[in-house]
Design a protein that fits this description.
Layout: E1 9-14, H1 15-27, E2 33-34, E3 36-37, H2 39-44, H3 47-57, E4 61-64, H4 67-79, E5 85-88, H5 98-101, E6 104-108, H6 111-120, E7 125-129, H7 141-149, E8 158-163, H8 176-188, E9 195-197, E10 214-215, E11 238-250, E12 254-256, E13 262-264, E14 268-273, E15 290-293, E16 296-299, E17 309-312, E18 326-330, H9 336-343, H10 347-352, E19 359-363
Parallel strand pairs: 1-19, 2-10, 3-4, 4-5, 5-6, 6-7, 7-8, 8-9
Antiparallel strand pairs: 1-11, 11-14, 11-18, 12-13, 14-17, 15-16
Helix pairs in contact: 1-3, 3-4
Bound molecules: pyridoxal-5'-phosphate.
Length: 366
């Protein structure tokens, strides 16, 4: 744990709200199961803590991208005598024994993966990913035709779930979702009796046709709005605060920061916070983003630099804007999606970029 006095940013991660978000999604799924996608360190929040918290809340199906992530999380679970299924979205990736040794379930993404798994680990469970519109990972439509003609290719495989992934689930208006649903249903006829999984976070909000046996939410667990344009049904999980290192009273016209991109015309007060783009606070927030201090919205003025960001605190009572005071950068009053909007990106990228210099506080009770 970092010395709170020596770090200039405090990242509070509310594990209670994380579990609550999972419960919320689970209870909206009727009888379908709710898994959790905890790839990339649970979207930057800490996968080891997340898997324990969610496993204790009742989640039994976890998804990561890489075998290494799965190996690490298997150890985390066994250290506290917990059990759960860990699925590897990236596939078997030519791995030797690591998958079976650590009891990991690969997602088979190609006919080659299927053949390899059948030859090497005929008993061990695996998922099959059917691509229905991403052209990224999974069996292509032509692979599915081949399987139709040669069903022996899947015979004898121990299939945990047949999965697919939605390309536009956050857009409930597009026909793409229904098209993918139809393709998925068609493909499922090749796997009679197998369990299926389609919905990511936003997919859960497209209705029960998308539920199948298991949903795979990631983003919504961490507070990202799965229904953009509508109120966020999820709670914010993180709070990021930056510490003011210095407050500068400006009384003559002057510019602020690299490139002199902000001009103070007459006078103003500038607070410099010890958080910058090296901490994952995007440079694209320069002259666009904002924080909150004492309930007052404080705009970023000038460029975000590597370790520092400057805020205009002219409208904040003087006694509140002092070195050591904390400016809220992300959190309940500045949802991660708003920060992403201002930065021209998505909440996913904001969370997965959260840096390593913050003092991280994991809140485990209210
Ligand atoms: C990342 C991922 C998810 C989770 O998506 P969210 O939008 O974060 O809920 C689900 N399924 C697959 C295949 C993924 O790659």
């Amino acid at each position: 744990m970092k010395d709170p006095n020596s770090s200039a940013g405090i990242l509070t991660i509310d594990m209670v709200e994380l579990a609550r978000n999972w419960q919320r999604l689970k209870s909206s799924l009727n009888n379908a199961d709710c898994g959790a996608v905890i790839k990339a360190e649970a979207y930057g929040l800490g996968a080891g803590r997340a898997i324990i918290q969610l496993c204790q809340a009742g989640c039994k199906e976890f998804f990561v991208a890489l075998i290494d992530e799965g190996v690490y999380l298997r150890k985390v679970l066994s250290d506290v005598s917990l059990e759960a299924n860990i699925h590897i979205l990236g596939g078997p990736m030519f791995a030797g024994q690591a998958l079976e040794e650590h009891n990991l379930i690969p997602v088979l993404n190609s006919l080659e993966d299927l053949a390899l798994w059948k030859r090497k680990h005929p008993q061990a469970p695996a998922d099959i990913h059917v691509d229905t519109g991403m052209a990224r990972l999974g069996l292509s439509p032509s692979d599915v035709v081949i399987l139709q003609k040669e069903p022996q290719r899947i015979k004898g495989l121990n299939i945990a779930y047949v999965i697919s992934h939605l390309a536009c689930s956050e857009d409930s208006k597009t026909t793409m979702n229904a098209d993918q649903l139809k393709s998925f249903r068609q493909a499922l006829t090749l796997f009679p009796g197998c369990k299926a999984s389609l919905a990511n976070s936003s997919g859960i909000f497209l209705g029960d046709k998308y539920f199948f046996n298991l949903a795979r939410p990631g983003a919504a667990l961490y507070g990202i709005n799965p229904t953009p344009g509508k109120p966020n049904p999820m709670s914010q999980v993180i709070k990021l605060q930056g510490k003011i290192l210095q407050v500068r009273e400006v009384n003559v016209p002057q510019t602020v920061g690299y490139g002199a991109t902000h001009q103070i015309k007459e006078k103003g007060r500038i607070a410099t916070v010890g958080v910058g783009y090296a901490d994952g606070y995007p440079r694209s927030l320069s002259n666009k983003g904002f924080g909150f201090l004492g309930g007052v919205r404080v705009p970023i003025v000038g460029r975000v630099s590597m370790d520092l960001t400057t805020f205009d605190v002219s409208n904040v009572p003087k006694q509140l804007a002092h070195p050591g005071a904390l400016i809220d950068l992300i959190g309940p009053i500045i949802p991660v999606d708003d920060v992403a909007d201002a930065a021209g990106t998505i909440g996913y990228e904001i969370l997965t970029s959260l840096g390593h210099r913050y003092q991280r506080i994991y809140k485990t009770s209210n």
